[in-house]
Design a protein that fits this description.
Bound molecules: adenosine-5'-triphosphate, magnesium ion
Number of helices: 16
Distance between the termini: 60 Å
Shape: elongated
Largest sheet: 9 strands, mixed
Strand content: 15-25%
Structural class: alpha/beta
Length: 499
């Protein structure tokens, strides 16, 4: 049996757990022993060659790749001539050696596929991906845990971090903005584990959220107006529910004239405005020194004459400083937090204020929250993998010891289709108090959209808006102009979304 046959045979075995089409990277079948032995030998020779080439680092990336290609071709044609390889095998060998040497090895094809949102590696033999909101197991494997560990080291060292027994956990961000977490033994019991969270290439605008049916055109309009009118907004949701993505889309509506300061644990926000200062927290070093917390950065940012402060995610003591900033003129601030409902978000805020160690009476904390925050947006990941804004709630004030809140928009599930959750956004019939602030800014909003009987509109497949389709369909290949041109209803709404 030729090497090619063996490769083809193993291709048949490489099946997905549920038969989904995972695209090209599933075509790269597990390696046969001969193939990986040859690859390893060539890799060893390459390492020797690179180590004995003194000016190697002076070549740029492309030059290095070309040199590697020439070196491997030369080796195959001379020292390894006895091993017959056809063109496909040869190309794969060269491609994989270059990936090993220059890229992230077996992860490269996954990283190159823009439709994959998460890459999750649990030890050398289990690689999962999230695609279209669903998790699949791939046939991609690493040779062993040592190989995986090498790739993890390469990933984290590229962004100036390191991982070893002394600091076995790393949170970092790749040059393309993807977020990476790696954790290795002894903390990870069954071998190194790597989680890569990528952002959809087309995310970051309200238009994308509209296309995906995550918000209705009316909700998008109100939320964008709220940002422009400098309301303080908290986005609440579970892990991976789309909080950061919504935060990114909303912050796109901050006027270009404002000075924005962002504070994040690992910088994920991609603001388009010119006047942005991005701050990132720093973990303590091995000696336990040098930590710079989000709280330190919030306090510092107040001395930087900010027009807006955006905190990527509120996790602890910085909450108190954020609330105080919101209450002392730094309005228009945006943040996210982990909570399952707007009411839950309020209790999370209270708990996090207590982390600051300042002993404030409970009522005092509550009234700070009530006067600081205007809107809580709840985002959720539904069982079909889609992400929706499921509630937009307004904080009205205090009644006795209770913070009063009213829902303005809600998502209502109407049924379940095949692998699909059906539903729609609707208005609760309450006209929000914050509307005054929006109107005062000169932004017009049709008050009827808050009526209970109002039917929300979505973008549909042909780019038109339509009232309440139960499954909003992406207007995937349409430009915004085409969408706006084809619009029969609520043309104004969509035009206003135009940036
Ligand atoms: N509305 C959406 N529709 C489809 N996919 C989305 C949507 N919002 C976010 N995503 C995708 O879901 C993944 C998680 O998004 P995001 O990082 O914004 O969530 P998060 O709530 O901030 O997560 P975390 O809790 O880890 O901070 C990303 O891959 C993103 O591209
Ligand atoms: Mg996030």
């Amino acid at each position: 049996m030729s090497l090619k046959d063996r490769l083809n045979n193993s291709a048949k075995k490489a099946e997905l757990t549920d038969g989904a089409d995972l695209g090209a990277f599933m075509g790269d079948v597990p390696l046969s022993k001969e193939f990986s032995d040859l690859k390893e030998k060539l890799h060893g020779l390459l390492v020797d060659k690179v180590n004995t080439t003194p000016d190697w680092s002076q070549y740029n990336d492309n030059e290095q790749k070309n040199l590697i290609r020439q070196f491997i071709e030369y080796q195959i044609n001379t020292n390894f001539r006895s091993i017959p390889l056809n063109k496909i095998e040869r190309d794969r060998l060269i491609r994989e050696i270059i990936q090993e040497a220059k890229g992230f090895g077996p992860l490269d094809p996954l990283l190159a596929d823009p439709s994959i949102s998460d890459i999750l590696v649990n030890g050398a033999k289990n690689v999962y991906v999230e695609k279209n909101g669903k998790l699949y197991k791939t046939s991609i494997t690493f040779k062993d845990n040592h190989h995986l560990r090498n790739i993890i080291e390469r990933i984290v060292s590229k962004v100036g971090r390191r991982i070893d027994e002394k600091s076995p956990m790393v949170d970092a961000r790749l040059p393309d903005g993807s977020r990476v977490n790696a954790i290795i033994p002894p903390l990870a019991i069954d071998g190194p584990s790597l989680s890569i969270r990528r952002f959809r290439a087309d995310s970051g605008t309200m238009e994308s959220l509209l296309k995906w049916g995550s918000v209705s055109a009316e909700i998008a309009q109100v939320l964008e107006a709220a940002v422009a009118a400098r309301l303080n907004i908290v986005i609440s949701g579970g892990t991976g529910a789309g909080k950061t993505t919504l935060l990114n889309s909303l912050s796109a509506k901050i006027p270009n004239t404002e000075r924005i300061i962002t504070i994040e644990d690992s910088a994920e926000l991609a603001l388009q405005q010119e006047h942005v200062v991005r701050l990132e927290t720093r973990p303590a070093n091995i000696e336990g020194e040098g930590q710079v917390s989000a709280r330190d950065l919030v306090i510092n940012s107040l001395r930087m004459r900010p027009d807006r402060i955006i905190i990527g995610e509120c996790r602890g003591a910085e909450t108190l400083d954020m609330l105080q900033a919101m209450n002392t003129g730094h309005d228009g601030s945006l943040t996210t937090l982990h909570a399952n409902s707007p009411r839950d978000a309020l209790s999370r805020l209270e708990t996090m204020v207590m982390f600051s160690g300042i002993d404030l009476p409970e009522r005092n904390i509550k009234s700070q929250i009530a006067s600081a925050i205007n809107i809580i947006i709840q985002v959720s990941r539904l069982s079909d993998g889609t992400r929706k804004v499921t509630k937009v709630s307004e904080i009205v004030g205090m009644e006795g010891d209770v913070i009063t809140m009213q829902d303005i928009f809600v998502w209502e599930q109407t049924g379940t289709g095949v692998n699909k959750v059906m539903g729609m956004h609707s208005s609760t019939g309450i006209r929000p108090k914050f509307l005054d602030k929006i109107v005062a800014k000169g932004i017009e909003i049709n008050p009827q959209i808050f009526d209970k009987s109002y039917r929300h509109t979505y973008l549909t497949k042909n780019g038109n808006t339509s009232p309440m389709p139960s499954t909003p369909v992406a207007a995937a290949n349409k430009t915004r102009d085409e969408i706006v041109k084809g619009t029969t209803l609520n043309v104004d709404l969509l035009k206003r979304l135009k940036r």
